[in-house]
Design brief:
Largest sheet: 8 strands, mixed
CATH class of the largest domain: Mainly Beta
Number of strands: 25
Distance between the termini: 87 Å
Order of helices and strands: HEEEEEEEEHHEEEEEHEEEEEEEEEEEE
Shape: rod-shaped
Helix content: 10-25%
């Protein structure tokens, strides 16, 4: 009996303390910082990996065979068109030229004799004082002599050409590279590469674009006058900006069916020889879209499974139940801010900021600080934070221009 009384007393105490225990207070609103979305002009560059190319480049090949007897330039320097570069032993070619010239003189003497004989026989034939056969032979001999002279003249030209080919000259202005032969080396016609010369100014810059961008670049090519802020510029390998701007020279004739890309060639002036053939660089194409766009700080973006979201601050009203017995938190009923998750489509990244293409509107308030501590529907508090307005450049964390990207 006593055990039953004790048990009842203990159960009564537990029920009393359970009823008297208060419910835990609701979670306090999360402090956040807000950014007011505004449309503003955006200026940036699209970047493309590129390679410099010489517009004119030639490998020097010998046209005659022989020993290299002279080298008349400094490797890696600028050479002028017509400058003497190499000398190949020309003694044999000089002898051949002299022999051809001597043979020409012999043939010219024979021609003179044949011409005199033909003239004499022509006179005798007109007087019927010589056999017709002798006259015909004289005419044929004269024609053969003329042909021999012509053949000898061509032989002289060939010998002179070979002699001239023993000296190699620069075909155009440009930079010459390292010599592939030394004095005393034997060179073979059409096989031995002596050196390479490439033009310097202007210089081409080649890069690839997607076939989807072709229409845009064709439109850029048609622009007659470029804007004051350069349309095409390049970033050098050391990160510096090349001081001269370029223009489209060639759009390739066809798209690569395997990659869906095609080549664009720009031309840049290179008076100081800063650019070198084969150099890697980055082409910057200035964005020509002048319409205002929405730009927000990148830290406001949340990525989930390849999709992008932001949290908007929305005013919500907590409804007060008509039955007082069901009211739980009447003290907090009324207007409050809550974080509402919103899917967005992102565009170009500009430094620490991102262009938003769709999903939010001008005037929306986006959470930029405290994003990691909120979830969809959670209460927020922006009273102790400093709001950022996209229209106020002094407080704006999303600048409209970041031209180094």
């Amino acid at each position: 009996m006593n055990r039953v009384i004790v048990s009842m007393v203990m159960m009564s105490c537990l029920a009393f303390f359970s009823c008297s225990q208060k419910q835990p207070p609701p979670n306090p609103p999360t402090p956040v910082n807000l950014y007011t979305v505004a449309a503003q002009p955006v200026s940036y560059y699209d970047n493309y990996p590129a390679t410099t190319e010489a517009i004119s480049q030639v490998s020097l090949l010998p046209q005659v065979q022989g020993y290299v007897t002279g080298i008349f330039f400094t490797e890696g320097t600028f050479v002028k068109k017509g400058q003497k570069l190499y000398q190949i032993d020309g003694s044999l070619y000089q002898q051949a030229y002299d022999a051809a010239l001597a043979n020409l003189k012999v043939q010219q003497g024979t021609l003179k004799q044949s011409q005199e004989d033909a003239d004499r026989y022509e006179y005798l034939n007109s007087q019927k004082a010589v056999a017709t056969q002798l006259y015909d032979h004289a005419v044929i001999t004269l024609q053969n002599s003329k042909n021999q002279v012509q053949s000898s003249e061509e032989a002289v030209k060939t010998a002179k050409t070979n002699l001239d080919f023993s000296i190699i000259y620069a075909p155009f202005d440009g930079t010459i590279g390292f010599s592939q032969v030394k004095i005393g080396n034997v060179v073979v016609v059409g096989q031995t590469i002596l050196n390479t010369i490439s033009s310097n100014d202007p210089l081409a810059v080649d890069f690839l674009i997607s076939e989807k961008q072709l229409a845009d670049f064709e439109k850029l090519q048609s622009i007659k006058e470029q804007p004051g802020d350069s349309l095409f510029s390049i970033i050098l390998p050391n990160g510096g900006i090349y001081p001269y701007t370029g223009k489209i020279s060639v759009i390739d004739r066809a798209v690569d069916p395997q990659t869906g890309t095609l080549r664009i060639r720009l031309v840049f002036p290179n008076p100081k020889n800063i650019l070198k053939d084969g150099m890697s660089c980055v082409v910057r194409v200035h964005n020509q879209n002048a319409s205002p766009q929405m730009v927000i700080p990148g830290k406001a973006i949340v990525e989930q499974m390849g999709e992008y979201f932001v949290f908007l601050a929305k005013d919500t009203t907590a409804a007060v139940p008509s039955d007082p017995s069901k009211a739980v938190d009447t003290a907090n009923a009324g207007t409050r801010l809550r974080a509402i998750q919103q899917k967005v489509m992102v565009g170009r990244t500009i430094g620490p900021n991102i262009v938003i293409l769709s999903g939010i509107n001008v005037g929306d308030k986006v959470i930029i600080d405290g994003v990691q501590a909120v979830h969809d529907g959670s209460p927020i508090d922006a009273s102790n934070k400093h709001p950022h307005d996209g229209k106020d450049s002094s407080n704006n964390t999303a600048p409209a221009s970041n031209k180094n990207n």
